[in-house]
Design a protein that fits this description.
Elements lengths: L2 H6 L4 H6 L11 H10 L24
């Protein structure tokens, strides 16, 4: 069984996490990325900045 086949046989992120070392040299292709998106947990909560720092008008200190 190839490294890619082993990776594609994973059923959960927990299983991947236990065997993470086996897949360090795995080359990514579309099929692997698609499988990763299925087994990896989805981010939750806010994924962007809560506020943005406004640009200063005129000169900035240190420039």
């Amino acid at each position: 069984m190839t490294e890619k086949e082993k990776f594609l046989s994973l059923k959960s992120y927990e299983e991947f996490d236990r065997r993470r070392q086996e897949f360090q040299t795995l080359k990514f292709d579309k099929e692997i990325v698609d499988h990763m998106s299925k087994i990896f947990p989805k981010p939750s909560g806010i994924s962007e900045e809560l506020y943005k720092t406004p640009r200063s008008q005129g000169r900035s200190i240190g420039l």
